[in-house]
UniProtKB/TrEMBL annotation:
Pfam families: YbeY. Binds 1 zinc ion. It comes from the Bacteria. The lineage of its organism: Bacteria, Bacillati, Bacillota, Bacilli, Lactobacillales. Keywords: Cytoplasm, Endonuclease, Hydrolase, Metal-binding, Nuclease, Ribosome biogenesis, rRNA processing, Zinc. This is Endoribonuclease YbeY. One of its GO terms (cellular component) is cytoplasm.
Amino acid sequence: MELTIYDHSQGMLTEHQTALAEELLAQAAAKLALPANAELSLTLVRNPEMKELNAKYRGVDRATDVISFAINDEEDLTLPAELQAELPLDLGDLFISLDKVKEQALFLGHSADREFGFLLVHGFLHLNGYDHETPADEAAMFSLQEAILTAYGLTR
């Protein structure tokens, strides 16, 4: 899977967090058996930028922790199947507030790595069609999310 990381964090993003994101999202992609040509972008921001995004796209005038913008491209039926198979699978864009990572880790009493990992996997699963709108959907998504985090070593 190809991951493009954009740093809008004004110096908050560490090399450790970059490596964690690359490794954990690769593991999550493998767990979902995504094709090797899957790709997504991850943008790390601060609360003011996240507040703007949340207000513009969700109508909520406050910073949030993670926002996922899934790309649901329909197959181009004019292309031969063999050419379609060669095109990258663009999952979409993931935005995470590093301010919220820090705040929530302190509030919840676990490591910043655990919180960052949780938000990465949570957003990634949303990009892949998972949600938590119903109790059954929530149970499935959160179970998979916890399995990925535990396998990586980010336990509660």
